[in-house]
TrEMBL record:
InterPro entries: Regulatory_FmdB_Zinc_ribbon
UniProt region (Disordered), positions on chain: 61-94
Protein name: Putative regulatory protein, FmdB family
SMART domains: CxxC_CXXC_SSSS (SM00834)
One Pfam assignment: Zn_ribbon_8
Residue span(s) of domain Putative regulatory protein FmdB zinc ribbon: 1-41
Top-rank lineage group of the source organism: Bacteria
Amino acid sequence: MTLYEYRCAACDAVELNFVIGQAPQSAECPGCGRQVRRVFSPPRLSIAGTSAYKLLDGTAKSAHEPEVVSGLPGRTAPKQRYTHNPLHRKLPRP
Ligand SMILES: [Zn+2]
């Protein structure tokens, strides 16, 4: 799903989710029910890959596809660090 921007005379800018390439030129405004026209806006590529984008994407995804939880989160064993450097064998063990 991709966000497309539409312009409503009463609500100003409205963003609606559609499948890429299937966004109609006009749609119904979710706020007032009027017909809104699609406007072209620059893609938000500047924030792609950032933690803010991942947070926004994860939040939007969880609204439509919540993760299924099958139980309580368990305690995980601390990760053991392994090294293959032979010099590290001489170091004292914890
Ligand atoms: Zn509206």
